[in-house]
Amino acid sequence: MNTSPSDSTRLGIALLRVSLGTMWISHALLKLLVFSLPGTAAYFSSIGFPGWLAYPVFAAEIAGGAALVLGVYARQVALGLVPIMAVAAWVHAPNGWVHTSAGGGWEYPAFLIAASLALWLLGDGAAAVRRSTRFTWTPALDLR
Predict the structure, then answer these.
(1) Which of 33, 80, 93, 132 is deepest in the core (most CB within 10 A)?
(2) pLDDT along the chain (144 residues), means of 10
């Protein structure tokens, strides 16, 4: 039995990986170019987080996004970014569903979490610079 993904599957995963990386980069650049890093730090402080956390969060988002675009250990990077967006979803949850609402909603962070988890489960896809270790999971219940 051949368990290797087809070429179209590998290309689809690569498309997910590059798109997801682009979204992580844009999320980081929003902090830098729109709100500014000192402004983001002030926002973090206003919601009860240490302001200095804005800087490593920005660095993780920009570096993680670049790693995803290039395909550098994409599975591990995608999983590693999930806690950042989980906190963002939690912070924005009281604002409602739509991220364009006042204060931003939680659907955008929730989608980035889902897409990151999907990439973690699927693998690196085509044209990855540094491949992740293969993930194998045998569910107790076959859902096919």
Answers:
(1) 132
(2) 75 91 96 96 96 98 96 92 95 84 85 94 84 61 50
